[in-house]
């Protein structure tokens, strides 16, 4: 008990201490080869160190092109040899197995050195970048020219090729919406080609081309995006205030809040019955303020503290300590809120709301990427080389018309099991962001709210988690009852069941794929499965439901030896969830 108190103290302390920590170790390259001189027989992972099925992905060779010409020759050689190809990025953040090709002999094309900003054009207000450029570079370079992307993901470490391939977004219903791909003016993609064309082809597309809506969100199956031109606007200022309210009217408020504030989002703490509304709007350029957003969970964090936090969570899980989780969650979230999540009025101190500042200093962050090589004192909290966060992420968007009822359903579950979602609050609750219908074939189909739910994942794939049933019911309810679209770059396997049928223009996308890459060299079992071309999105085996590899249909898919059995959902009775059944009634 005392140990727990101490650990909880540590947790609060850590939130304060990380403000002053500067030295950290950068995330490692996700591609690992036997030696630095030999780019053969390599492995590739995601930034969390584990795919949903925990397999290792092998590749025959890795190549690190620096120019479009080098991409072309790599693709040409592989196409000629009939080899599978995939693109890896600097950090490889996608959770699903998107970076893996089949078998051990594929060619991995890394965009690590395809990292140059080519042009910022003040007159046309555009920026042209190579495919491996990070969001942080885009923001910085645009700002130097007095320009900005209006809406972006919140994390600097994504690359333009990777974030567009998975439809990544920030939060807004205004303008063209919050998905980056909807700001693409021109996309250059290198694809395989037939022998007479030299086995590789450069395709430069803009809105006048019929394929443009296919190449905006590609899942990586059309070829290598070497260059993107994005539409910018003049740099502007924003004013941000976080307002805490109880969540009794959240179901109604969420639907209209996105129309009230240009950069609105909501952080929901369902077990605490609280919602934190981000009141965030443009203000005139002459409004005073030089605020900065340095989101605390994306800062370099002391490895020792990450380890202590993880140990606490593990002990709470093993001991089914729901109260412990709930009090840890309250401490964590109130510390974050007190620290304004990492907002400061002047880059140093947070003194009051609103925080006013330039867009480029507020739109996105990720200082844990800054680093000294080999200093393991601090790291990004999920970096697999230290003991730290390890989680599942269930992320989906529900059309605005379904949002009210979905939130009410989640609230019904919380009424039945009040402590059930404290575990997600440890990861700062459910992040709700606005996304707008997109013309991209694999983009959002309607205006929607994207719900981002992060929760404990055991290092042991056969170990169930607390309130497993509630989390699984929410996941299945969203995907099947509300027809939610899974984020292509996140989620567990089951979220992709039937996903492609939710896209009206899926067939058009597949037609383009057949033209660009008729032999499917950029496709894999996984991309074929999520595109509905092959069975087997889910994997049925012992304990499969615990990792979201399947929906349970029998007890062995859960953990009967640990008291978890396959049962129907409580609010969504079609759900099949792993529920802890104790002899005592509760
Ligand atoms: C801390 C953190 C915060 C995040 N925040 C957000 C957020 O705010 N909003 C959001 O929507 N998502 C967010 N994500 C998820 C993220 O958007 C996706 O996982 C995204 O795909 C990752 O981009 P990446 O550059 O790491 O690409 P990867 O995961 O490496 O690649 C994704 C796919 O794109 C393909 N690909 C990559 N580059 C190219 C290219 N040049 N040409 C062709 N194919 C390519 C890859 O082969 C792969 O199939 C976050 C993830 C993390 C870890
Ligand atoms: C790759 O590994 C295999 C054994 O797994 C070995 O036989 C082969 O020589 C290696 N190839 C290269 C190019 O390193
Ligand atoms: C690619 O790797 C294979 C082994 O996996 C090796 O035999 C082959 O020579 C490599 N090709 C190149 C171009 O390095
Ligand atoms: C679109 O691409 C075509 C070439 O395919 C080019 O002629 C045209 O100028 C481009 N349009 C814009 C708006 O960039
Ligand atoms: C929630 O807040 C509203 C005012 O915003 C108040 O009327 C209501 O009673 C509160 N509900 C609970 C359960 O505290
Ligand atoms: C900002 O500029 C506008 C005119 O462009 C002026 O009316 C306003 O008073 C200015 N505000 C401040 C705070 O200086």
Automatic annotation (TrEMBL):
<dbReference type="InterPro" id="IPR010030">
    <property type="entry name" value="GULO_Plant"/>
</dbReference>
<comment type="similarity">
    <text>Belongs to the oxygen-dependent FAD-linked oxidoreductase family.</text>
</comment>
<protein>
    <recommendedName>
        <fullName>L-gulonolactone oxidase</fullName>
        <ecNumber>1.1.3.8</ecNumber>
    </recommendedName>
</protein>
<dbReference type="InterPro" id="IPR006094">
    <property type="entry name" value="Oxid_FAD_bind_N"/>
</dbReference>
<keyword id="KW-0732">Signal</keyword>
<dbReference type="InterPro" id="IPR007173">
    <property type="entry name" value="ALO_C"/>
</dbReference>
<feature type="domain" description="FAD-binding PCMH-type">
    <location>
        <begin position="51"/>
        <end position="235"/>
    </location>
</feature>
<comment type="pathway">
    <text>Cofactor biosynthesis; L-ascorbate biosynthesis.</text>
</comment>
<keyword id="KW-0274">FAD</keyword>
<dbReference type="InterPro" id="IPR050432">
    <property type="entry name" value="FAD-linked_Oxidoreductases_BP"/>
</dbReference>
<keyword id="KW-0285">Flavoprotein</keyword>
<keyword id="KW-0060">Ascorbate biosynthesis</keyword>
<feature type="signal peptide">
    <location>
        <begin position="1"/>
        <end position="24"/>
    </location>
</feature>
<dbReference type="InterPro" id="IPR016166">
    <property type="entry name" value="FAD-bd_PCMH"/>
</dbReference>
<dbReference type="Pfam" id="PF22906">
    <property type="entry name" value="GULLO2-like_3rd"/>
</dbReference>
<dbReference type="GO" id="GO:0019853">
    <property type="term" value="P:L-ascorbic acid biosynthetic process"/>
</dbReference>
<dbReference type="GO" id="GO:0050105">
    <property type="term" value="F:L-gulonolactone oxidase activity"/>
</dbReference>
<dbReference type="GO" id="GO:0003885">
    <property type="term" value="F:D-arabinono-1,4-lactone oxidase activity"/>
</dbReference>
<dbReference type="Pfam" id="PF01565">
    <property type="entry name" value="FAD_binding_4"/>
</dbReference>
<dbReference type="GO" id="GO:0016020">
    <property type="term" value="C:membrane"/>
</dbReference>
<dbReference type="GO" id="GO:0071949">
    <property type="term" value="F:FAD binding"/>
</dbReference>
<keyword id="KW-0560">Oxidoreductase</keyword>
<dbReference type="InterPro" id="IPR036318">
    <property type="entry name" value="FAD-bd_PCMH-like_sf"/>
</dbReference>
<dbReference type="Pfam" id="PF04030">
    <property type="entry name" value="ALO"/>
</dbReference>
<dbReference type="InterPro" id="IPR016169">
    <property type="entry name" value="FAD-bd_PCMH_sub2"/>
</dbReference>
<dbReference type="InterPro" id="IPR055154">
    <property type="entry name" value="GULLO2-like_C"/>
</dbReference>
